[in-house]
Amino acid sequence: MISLRNLRKTYGRGPGAVRALDDVSLEVARGEIFGVVGRSGAGKSTLLRTVNLLERPDSGSVEVDGVEMTTLDQAGLRRARRSVGMVFQHFNLLSNRSVQQNIEFALEAARTPRARRRARATEILELVGLEGRGGSYPAQLSGGQKQRVGIARALAAEPTVLLSDEATSALDPETTESILDLIQSINRELDLTVLLITHEMEVVKRICTSAALLEDGRIVEQGAVTGLISTQGSRLASQLFPLAAPQPDDGPTVIDITFSGGTADRPVIARLARDHQLDVSILGAVVDRIGGTQAGRTRLALPVAGTAADAVIADLRGQGLLVDVLKGGRS
Ligand SMILES: Nc1ncnc2c1ncn2[C@@H]1O[C@H](COP(=O)(O)OP(=O)(O)OP(=O)(O)O)[C@@H](O)[C@H]1O
Fold first, then answer.
1. Whom does it interact with, and what assembly results (predicted)?
2. Domain ranges of the chain
């Protein structure tokens, strides 16, 4: 549905130039919720804004629903942009217009007849859970309600793609949950493809089917979230399940075991203690639901080193468990 190939984008020239995108390629399948994560300045906003060509890449290809965006003329681009809705961190609502007018505004540019605009705004307000609030002004709404209006406005022209630029970053955790639920339900009900950028790993955990990690303008990992969490050494996976760094007195060997799907409910630690007669210490654990399945990571200290530790690690891997060695043992 969205295919970005070999995108490059540099801001400025000479010694002060910033390479925001450096050979970025990304595939987002129809109906996916795809999350791009990365630190501040990694290039996330630039990447998102190339999809509807708010930011024109220096080179590379941007294809949305089979249309190559970079070669369109102004009229073609205006038309193509109607199939790409966008929501923003700070909502970007017009404060002097009512909720209804904010939504209708998105349809005015498309010259939609007035009666149709009204009907569509009413319909879409209901979809986002704001029925009856069309006459309110943005200042009379909570942050969560403002973002619902932002989403309604983005959906007004019946797009096939929704771009979300940190849509929940300005919201409290409870409101974030409800907005993520809304994004997930419109993704399903409207068969909408969602590309979102976020610095919150919770967003990826809660709703994303696929994700990519952007670093200094480069994609360093991408794939299905369930696949990434079962990939040894995945940095995205360790950010999804963050555990404190090992301490010098943790023991000679420290390992992380990542569980997902079928391996989540096995009595691994009890078995380790029994089969290897080891006093295993649990240094930390994070468990959550990802993509509808239980997944998590447990950090263990083993009181053995060298070949004894290697034997334990080999045994765990032999059981189909994903083991990352942080200290001691062979990785
Ligand atoms: N219009 C611009 N002019 C010059 N430099 C820019 C411009 N927009 C972005 N940059 C620079 O490009 C790099 C990538 O910025 P971008 O906003 O895409 O990153 P980001 O990952 O979205 O960061 P944040 O999470 O802080 O918004 C940064 O170094 C930024 O300072």
1. Homodimer. Forms a membrane-associated complex with FtsX.
2. 2-230, 241-328
Query: What would the CATH number be for the domain defined by 2-230?
Result: 3.40.50.300
Here the ipTM equals 0.96
For the CA of 38, the closest atom of ligand 1 is 21
pTM here is 0.86
Ligand 1 geometric centre to CA of 42 (Å): 7
State the first-to-last Cα distance of the chain, in angstroms, to the nearest integer.
38
**How many angstroms separate the CA atoms of 25 and 3, rounded?**
8
Instruction: Using alpha carbons, select from 277, 291, 181 the residue that is nearest to residue 237.
Output: 291
- At 147-195, the pLDDT tens digits run 999 999 999 999 999 999 999 998 999 999 999 999 999 999 999 999 9
CATH number for the 241-328 domain, one of 3.40.50.2300, 3.20.20.70, 1.20.120.450, 3.30.70.260? Answer: 3.30.70.260
| Residues flanking ligand 1, CB < 6 Å | 11-12, 18, 20, 38, 40-46, 199
Distance of CA 163 to the CA centre of its chain: 11
